[in-house]
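Fold description:
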Amino acid sequence: MSEKEYWRDYSYVMRGKQRKKVLLILDGPALVSEIKGKTNLSLAETSRVLRGLVEQGLAECKNPEDHLGRVYGLTDKGYNLQKKIK
């Protein structure tokens, strides 16, 4: 990841309290409901935040073909950013 990409991603995450919460609790694969429970966000808000993190290349859906029980985890890029934020 270039320095420019890092700062873009850092800014994206830090501008939103919800994005930061979700990024910091994703230590491994988790269901949306598990993420919701750990962050105290609504299901809709959790899903919206995850979609944004996926679009930024910071997270990925491990089972996109499933409509229920989707599992999300950080990409290498997301994990590296998480380590630097912690």
Observations:
- The mean pLDDT is 95.
- Residues 26 and 80 are 12 Å apart (CA to CA).
- DSSP finds five helices and three strands in the chain.
- Residues 3-85 form a domain with the Arc Repressor Mutant, subunit A fold (CATH 1.10.10.10).
